[in-house]
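Chapter summary example.
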Amino acid sequence: MSTQPNFDQPRILIIDDNPAIHEDFRKILGGQPTLSKLGDMEKALFGEEETKAERVVFRIDSAFQGREALEMVQKAMQENDPYALAFVDVRMPPGWDGIETLEHIWQCCPELQAVICTAYADYSWDDIAKRLGHTDNLLILKKPFETVEVLQMAHALTRKRALEYQAKLRMEDLDRMVRERTQELVAANEQLKQEIEERTRAQQALRISEEQFSKAFNANPMPMAIVTCPESRFQAANASFVALSGYSLEQLQQHTTTELRLWEDASGKSTVTLLPDKPIRNASCILRRSDGTLRNTILWAEPITLLSGPCILLIVEDVTEQLKLEGQLRQAQKMEAVGRLAAGVAHEFNNILTVIQGHAGLLRAMAADPKTVSESAARIAQACQRAATLTKQLLAFSRKQPLQFNPVNVGALLQSIQKMLGRVLGERYRMQVELAPELPPIRADESSVEQAIINLALNARDAMPDGGTIQITATPVVCDESVVRKNPEARAGRYVCVAVTDTGCGIKPELLNRIFDPFFTTKESGKGTGLGLSTTHGIVQQHKGWIEVMSQVGVGSTFKIFLPVWEDKPIEQPKPDAAPKPVELNGSGEAVLLVEDEVSVRELARKALEQGGYKVIEASDAPEAIELWEKAQKRVKLLVADIVLPNGMSGRELAKLLKQRDPQLRVVYTSGYGPEIIKDDPALFTSANFLPKPFDPEALLAAVKRELQAQAA
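The structure predicted for these 713 residues follows.
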């Protein structure tokens, strides 16, 4: 018979790559009359008479890496002198860390008590629980640790290990006693014959109960079935289930659920497995009927026990028609939103087109009047700028507008906005800007963030028609997982919160969930477009931030925008040079290939280039451009091409083909679309050779000149 482990002098294993830590543990645990010290403390606190405690002697071993510790634990178990407790450092480079070491040790010795020693937040308790499971054999000790903490843990956990071992021995004794008692019961089996009649009566009662269950089962309008365990073979199915599955009862009883491939999960990629120890409740599944058609269902699977043995009761709800109705409702809501958006866009553009069309008519009727020509041209230019601004707002709202992210000084930005808005808001309004000290720079497109804050400030002004104070504050915040759980749009990390507060009329609670809808406004007709807040929301979303709104009717509103902090290396700002010299935009007869499928746009670009001194070769698509390129008598130095072209070849593809023939060819791209069109190269929309539509002749000539000068350099 093997000797029992010596838990009166428990063995403790120190696992740490630092020799000094081993020395610290040996000083604390290596032979001091620790219980006496605890008694001294008890006497000092409670005034009780000192009782002399027996001295506990710990046997201490050291391991400096995880693999070495595993070998020592295995050897100790082979010698029947196992370790009771291990102090494990969480960091032990190179090799296993403390968590991985415990995973390996507990595979061979799950009874070992363990204390993880760490000075860092390497693992949260949830991470440790995922790796090691929920166990009562583990404690955490933060470095630097106190002597009393180590002593308390050593005494408590070694004692716990000894008690667990004694309990194990006791359970073995109990098992032996049970086996002996079982033999006695077998010998006394004759005395139990009287119970047979009682069991027979119980079975009869059970049959009556099952009969009642059977009637309720078969008459239930919900599809229900019973399958055996663990075969998952159909034992019974009511008429509703038979109708839903499309199989007859005989066909169901001849096969298992797996053979029929009856159930799939909601994704339709894997088969649902029925297990007796894992009930299924309110699970979305797909039922495959006998004819191959699919039905959306909600499945319940509950383990039950019948005379035949353990089974699973299946209850199914067909929600196919319900989901169709919900889909139709969502589509109707979507179309309603699209209709509101289209109506708003049509209203705004109709106003703009009315201005353009009216002044164009005046130009035709009074072309000889220089004053009329000048004023009408100015009004047309203003209307075009208004249309371009509206398009930009729509792109920002839909988060398709290309941005250039740089580190932005929030304090300087707000001070600049304060100076500008001081003139715009009027005398009845006062703006207060409060900045937290040492604000970090944010990762942002400066003009877009400026637009978002101005929109909020103007919205605050409109909420206070009788005047008031608009307060803008900027503070750094750190968002953790608790914030993310409260706000699904939030993300963990470092942010700068810019808050715009007014003391105006406030927003009604029933309208709060609509304030970011495009063209939704509570202002009077003609007082606003309804794009200010939706544009701001789109800009903040593009910056991977979010907006929070707090409002009370009659008290005021606060809009908070959270913008991420610039985490990259700071960008060195170039030193200011002398004032730039005016750029000469005209060319010297260089050949330019213009490719644009819109006739009016192509005509405008051609006239602008010709007036700028360039020789223009124009084409409506890529095949025509290639043909004209080959016939050109003069070398084409620059290609101006719309990115989206008809007849199968884009502007990007055309430029790539022509640059293979002439690597010196320069290119200017134009487009009225956002970066979602060129998904494989979204950086193109922020490059220097991209000219967004709408553009004026001066912008086109500047882009062409810039590219030709880059070619010469």
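To summarize the output: The first helix runs from residue 19 to 29.
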